Amino acid sequence: MGFFPWQMVHSVSILERITIDLVLLISMSLIGTLFLIRQSLVTRQTRKTLEATVALRTRELEAAREELARSHASLRSLTDKAPIGIAARSPAGVLEYANSHWETLISLCPNLANWAPEDTGAEDYLKDLYLTDETGAPRHFYAVIADYLDMQGNTGGVWIIVTDVTERKLAETQLSNLAKLASLGEMSTGLAHELNQPLQGIRLVAANLKRLTAEIHGAQPAVAQKFQRLDDLVERAGNLVARMRSFGRIQKGDLAPVDLGHCLQQTVESFKKHHFTDDVSIRIELPDQPAVALGEPQMIDQIVVSGLSNALDAVRSTQRPGEITVALHPEQELWLLQISDNGPGIAPDLIDRVMEPFFTTKPVNEGVGLGLSLSNGLATSMGAQLGIANGEQGAVLTLQFPSWEPVAWNPKMSATSN
User: Fold this and answer.
1) Three-class secondary structure of residue 89 per DSSP
2) What is the rounded distance in angstroms from the CA atom of residue 212 to the CA atom of residue 108?
3) Do 281 and 326 meet the contact criterion of CB atoms below 8 Å apart?
4) pLDDT digits (tens, 9 = 90+) for 287-314
5) Through-space distance between the first and last CA atoms of the chain, rounded to whole angstroms
6) What is the pTM of this model?
């Protein structure tokens, strides 16, 4: 069988194709291998980058967590030591947090624990709270209400921030009263100046009238007694006017030993005559021995008259027969002057305030609330102590004088009825 040239060409062509296919196959395999190698390198680099990023973010989160913990601890320390009450309350009314001062306020005023922001209107963020403590005494608080958010950013309840302003309000009231007292002092000085001249005129006219009466009608004991009484009243009014200039203050050097029994008896008898006390029984109890203390008669007179006036108003406010007892007795090295009545007494929540300036339980236009306040100042000026309390039936006003000389207890008392 013969071999033709075109057959050889055909065979070469097949070999070339096979060779080309093999080269292409090897090339594709190399390219695929290189791609896989590249992808592997990229993936490894990406992984390293991601790992580094994750590590960085983790460190940042840990730092933020530590900073948040420090901030939380600092805030907790701040709220725990704050001089105001701070509490967090859920919408259901459950107390979720309370600082130590909140607990102090609750122990002082248990009613605060039962108070809810809705009680005074939830639309107001600043509230005035008027509550009472365990003794019934009023307490005044300022409360600030603010929403607090939970972890999801929703309203999780309210913050309640409470400040006890009772003492501050009391101080503001006292400041206001001091301003009133200053104005009253200026007014009393002006009145003293205006009243002093008419009193001097009355004194002069009374002296001339006394002299003319003696010249025309001769000496008459009854008339002389009336003129003496007039002189005594003018002298008393003059002393009151003189004290108005200093608004109830007196220097220690003006004090002298005083017979309290004699002074008290004169004051009570004068009070009976000028206050129409026929409907009230006023009894005086005096010791047998002289009751001598350091004081000033006009000041003692003013304190006793103020106490008798309050007692008279008290007993006349009841339907039963009025009884007032004025007693003077020794106790160790003190003299106790007590004015007691059978009136309604003083409400327990008001008894600590009755000596405050301008505090009164009387109706409008029947009292300005200065009687006991001024009496307390006068007592302090004399080194005495004034107190008031409820007795078995009504109120008892007690004036304690240090004895000028030590006294012993003497149970014998003399009584004089109206």
Assistant:
1) strand
2) 73
3) no
4) 888 888 888 888 888 888 888 888 888 8
5) 178
6) 0.47
The DSSP code for 363 is P
Q: Distance between CA 158 and CA 115 in Å, rounded?
A: 13
Distance from chain centroid for Cα 34: 89
Q: How many CB atoms lie within 10 A of CB 209?
A: 13
Q: 171 to each of 352, 354, 369, how far by Cα in Å?
A: 15, 16, 18
How far apart CA 254 and CA 272 sit, in angstroms, is 29
With CA atoms as reference, report the closest residue to 129 among 151, 145, 149, 150: 145
CB 405 within 8 A of CB 291: no
Enter the tokens of residue 164: 């006890």
pLDDT in tens, 180-219: 666 666 666 666 666 777 777 777 777 777 777 777 777 6
128: phi > 0 → left, psi -120 to 50 → alpha, else beta; which?
beta
The dihedrals phi and psi of 348, each to the nearest 5 degrees, come to -55, -35
d(CA 315, CA 201): 39
Neighbours of 173 (CB within 10 A): 15
Q: Where are the beta strands (DSSP E) in 150-279?
A: 155-164, 256-259
